[in-house]
Amino acid sequence: MARKTPSVVPPQPKMKLTSQEIDRGLARLSERIAELHAFDLNTVRNGNTPELKAMQVAIKDSLTRCFGEDTSAYRTYAAAADLTYYPMIVSTGQQIDYCTPIQRRVQNSIALLEQAQKSLKEDLADLSASGEIQVTSSPEDRVVHSGRVFVVHGHDEGARESVARFLEKLGLEPIILHEQANRGGTVIEKIERHRGVGFAVVLLTPDDQGCVKGGELEPRARQNVLLELGYFLGCLGRERVCALKRGQVEIPSDFAGVVWTPMNDDSWKQALSRELQDAGYEIDWNKVMRG
I want to staple 154 with a disulfide (CB 3.0 to 4.6 A). Which of 63, 75, 210, 222 is the partner? Predict the structure, then answer.
C-alpha cells in the first residue's frame, strides 16, 4: 500500500500593516540587530547558552509581530532565529569549535533582519504612494506608544539608577544610552535609533558649572542633557517628557515654560507616575507607594 504523502500547510497571506505598526516593527528589528552586533561570542566557547536561546526567542517574537505567525513573509526571514549550533558527531576529548558556526549564524541573522527591514520600508513607501498614510504635524500623533522610557542623565549615577529601577518596578523598560550598542554611530545617531520610545525622563543634576561672561559660576546640568531634553521635547511633545531636578540647577531661559519636578525626596515617584498616567500609561499605585 502506497504511503500517503503528508500534506504541506500553505503559509498564511502577508499581514497588512498600518504605518504606525510598520514603524514599531522597524524599531523592534533595529533592537534585535543591535543586540546581535553587541553579542559576545566568547560566551559560547563551551556551547550554547541560555542568553543565546533567549535571543532566538526575541527574534522570533519580533518577526511574528512584524509579519504575522506562519505567513509567507515570516517564513522568508524565519532562519534569522536559528542561532544555536549542535555538532553532528562528538568524540571523547574532542575540542568543539562553537564560536565559528555561531558567528556565521549571527551574521546570517543580521543580514536577514536587515532585509526584513527593507521589506517593511518598501511597504511603508507603498502606503505613502497610495495615500493611505495620514500626515500630521503634531508630535503626539507621531509618537510610538511603547513601554520603553528613555532616561536622559548626567554624572549622577545614583539619580539615574533610582529612576531606572523605579521604572522597572512599574513594568516599564528604561533605555539608558551608554548601555546600548554603539554600532559605530555617533551619540546623536544612537539617540535617533531609540526615538521610538513612548516617554522620556530627563535628570537635571548639578554636574557642571557655568555663567555669563564675567558672572558668578552657578551649578548647571550637563550640556548633553539639555540637548537631549530639547530633542525629546520636539520628538515626543511636552506631555511625554518629565524633567526631574535635583538641587540647585540653572535652567536655560528657552526651557522656562517646562514644568520641573524636584527630586530632593521620594515625592518625585508620585509626580512621575502622575505624568506617566496622564500620558496614557496604566499605573499600579500600590507599586508606586511601595517604591
Answer: 222
- Cα-based distances in Å from 267 to 11, 161, 202, 273: 53, 16, 16, 10
Residue 241 near residue 229 (C-beta atoms within 8 A): yes
Burial class (CB in 10 A: 0-12, 13-18, 19+), 181: middle
| CA distance linking residue 84 with residue 38, whole number of Å | 17
Q: Which residues contact 269 (CB under 8 A, 6 or more apart)?
A: 166, 288, 291
pLDDT tens digits along 94-137: 778 888 999 999 999 999 999 999 988 888 888 767 655 444 44
The predicted-structure confidence for 25-64, as pLDDT tens digits, reads as follows 888 888 899 889 988 888 888 888 888 888 899 999 889 8
Alpha carbon distance 70, 180 (integer Å): 31
Cell readout for 42 is 566568547
Exposed/middle/buried for residue 142 (C-beta within 10 Å: 0-12, 13-18, 19+)? middle
